TrEMBL record:
Residues 58-85 are annotated as: Disordered. Pfam families: Maf1. This is Repressor of RNA polymerase III transcription MAF1. Belongs to the MAF1 family. Interacts with TFIIIB subunits BRF1 and BRF2. Interacts with Pol III subunit POLR3F. Interacts with TFIIIC subunit GTF3C1. It comes from Pipistrellus kuhlii. Gene3D superfamilies: Repressor of RNA polymerase III transcription Maf1. Keywords: Cytoplasm, Nucleus, Repressor, Transcription, Transcription regulation. It is found in: Cytoplasm; Nucleus. GO terms for biological process: negative regulation of transcription by RNA polymerase III.
């Protein structure tokens, strides 16, 4: 995975890391190429020892909706698909994990992440609404002005209409940012298979009143971004 330069994202990221009075909002949008080279190829070879790239892995239902995409409709046979019917190939799962590794390097290694920690989102509108609600509730009018710029930049980079959208939703024990004072967070992957590219949108809110001292990983991330 290679981080792709995007001046629009850099400008937006500077506005997504702010203090709101009682919380610290830490957000960033990054674009990654899925073309593997060097360490990625070695990691992918190890990853495939547990299953071939085309093998499908079960995902957890999305948190942004009470229904998973495949449970919004029934199969051709008329039977329900089941609570863990959403799946992705192991190769796609590798791309998601490799994106996390590259984005949070060197603080965390996500190589042990499993498919049940990821979800496929029901639709673009679900995700846009979830992001907009979280950020508007946090920064109010500042986000109203940023919103069209943000989504236009993402669309220009990844062509949202062509994307499968995934999220990373670890439990508290394995969440690297599940520190004291964490109010909410989201981690979305916009994957365009044709472009062989992923746009990763990560954001969280940390309470200034209960944030850990010495600084936790979120604070260290802010220091790196600045």
């Amino acid at each position: 995975m290679k981080l792709l330069e995007n001046s629009s994202f850099e400008a937006i990221n500077s506005q997504l890391t702010v203090e709101t009075g009682d919380a610290h909002i830490i957000g960033r949008i990054e674009s990654y190429s899925c073309k593997m080279a060097g360490d990625d190829k070695h990691m992918f070879k190890q990853f495939c020892q547990e299953g071939q790239p085309h093998v499908l892995e079960a995902l957890s239902p999305p948190q942004t909706s009470g229904l998973s995409p495949s449970r919004l409709s029934k199969s051709q046979g008329g039977e329900d698909e089941g609570p863990l019917s959403d799946k992705c190939s192991r190769k796609t799962l590798f791309y998601l994990i490799a994106t996390l590794n590259e984005s949070f390097r060197p603080d965390y290694d996500f190589s042990a992440a499993r498919s049940h920690e990821f979800s496929r989102e029901p639709s673009l509108s679900w995700v846009v609404n979830a992001v907009n609600c979280s950020l508007f509730s946090a920064v109010r009018e500042d986000f109203r002005a940023l919103k069209p710029q943000l989504w236009n930049a993402v669309d220009e980079e990844i062509c949202l209409a062509e994307c499968d959208i995934y999220s990373y939703n670890p439990d508290l024990d394995s969440d690297p940012f599940g520190e004291d004072g964490s109010l909410w967070s989201f981690n979305y992957f916009f994957y365009n298979k044709r472009l062989k590219r992923i746009v990763f949108f990560s954001c969280r809110s940390i309470s200034l009143r209960t944030a850990t001292h010495p600084p936790g990983p979120a604070a260290r991330l802010v220091a790196r971004l600045h």
